[in-house]
Amino acid sequence: MSDREVPASVPLVPLDIFDRGLRDLRISLIDRCNFRCPYCMPESEFHQDYQFLRRENRLTHDEIVRLAGVAVKLGVDKLRLTGGEPLLDRQLPALVARLAQLPVSDIAMTTNAMLLDKQAAALKQAGLTRITVSLDSLNPDVFHRLSGGRGAVDQVLAGIDAAERAGFDALKINCVVQNGINDHTVLDLLAHFRHTRHVVRLIEFMDVGNRNNWKADQVVTSKALLARIEALWPVTPVAPNYRGEVARRYQYQDGAGEIGFISSVSAPFCGSCHRARLAADGTLYTCLFATQGTRLLEPMRRGATDEELQQMIERVWQKRDDRYSEQRASREPTERPLRKVEMYRVGG
Predict the structure, then answer these.
(1) If 163 and its partner were Cys, which of 5, 51, 120, 326 is the partner (CB 3.0–4.6 Å)?
(2) Secondary structure letter of residue 182 according to DSSP
């Protein structure tokens, strides 16, 4: 069923240029992080004197709940809380409890899990339905390098354990794989989470933002990773959980669980992307690789009604023609790099 072929009982939602409806909203709560990952927030730039957004320039919880409610009227059914690092928001459980009152099927969070052990139970009680943990390696030295010298693997694993005890029994573990950096530790990561309900998802290294000096030879394709894995543990493809799921799913043939591949570089999935991203400063972006966004904070604080905000978002979505990952390969090497929004502002 296409986005235009909806049952009569379902209200029509705005479609973009390529007939993609708005279904998911990713909300960045804060532009700060307790890691300094080189491909996102390198220490050389984001040092102790770096000026992040002031509190008055960030969306308040009231404003987040209001905009999420407007988005729901436009067809959004899933919310994901991101950062920066969302657990740096000390009032996060209270926000989740308010968002849980909206008619959505899913409220998820992406985190590095360093602070998760102390907050998992409260988040579960508040109504958070799913957690995704960013974990690029279990090797302490590799982890230290990729986190910018912050945090510790044991603390991340403690957060995952706490989430399990709180009732989050099937986490997603996201691993961005880089050639020569952490690809040699992938099998150890998979081995650790085999025979659990947690799903490791291997993500091709992407040219997100403007700081990671991305080159094609840094990418380890999903096909190459699959070959390495099958040499050790045979796997079988599994049908998607829902239309537009970004990860291709596989199950271990020995029954040891499931893994996934997110192949934005080698097998782009722009055609089924239904996500909008709301930055902490109230800017709405329609793509992870967007070069510009639409400011919602100022109109809202000047007194715009919910209907006016809804019309703004609807107009933006109907003009949406983003498909950067599909166009990446056709860009000429001599073309000036695009000034894309930074990942720490809109989540991964």
Answers:
(1) 120
(2) T
pLDDT value for 1: 45
Q: pLDDT per residue over 54-90, tens digit each?
A: 999 999 999 999 999 999 999 999 999 999 999 999 9
Give residues with Cβ within 8 angstroms of 39, minimum separation 6.
176, 178, 205, 208, 211, 212
Enumerate the β-bridge partners of residue 26.
80, 277
Strand bridging mode 258-262 / 248-252: antiparallel
Q: With beta carbons less than 8 A apart as the criterion, state whether 20 and 273 touch.
A: yes
Give dist(CA 146, CA 35) in Å, integer: 9
Q: Show contacts of 62-67: CB within 8 Å, 24+ apart.
A: 63/282, 63/297, 63/300, 64/27, 64/29, 64/95, 64/99, 64/278, 65/95, 65/98, 65/99, 65/102, 66/300, 66/306, 66/309, 67/278, 67/282, 67/296, 67/300, 67/309
Residue with tokens 């040699």: 184
Q: Show the CA angle centred on residue 198, arms to residues 24 and 216, nearest 5°.
A: 65
CA angle 289, 294, 295 (to 5 degrees): 130
Average pLDDT, the chain: 91
Partners of 284 in beta bridges: 278, 294
The answer to whether the CB of 83 falls within 8 A of the CB of 31 is yes
Residue 310 has what DSSP assignment?
H
Q: In this predicted model, what pLDDT tens digit does every residue of 169-218 receive, in sequence order?
A: 899 999 999 999 999 999 999 999 999 999 999 999 988 877 777 888 89
3-state secondary structure of 181: coil
What is the rounded distance in angstroms from the CA atom of residue 179 to the CA atom of residue 165?
35
Structure tokens at 210: 């403007």
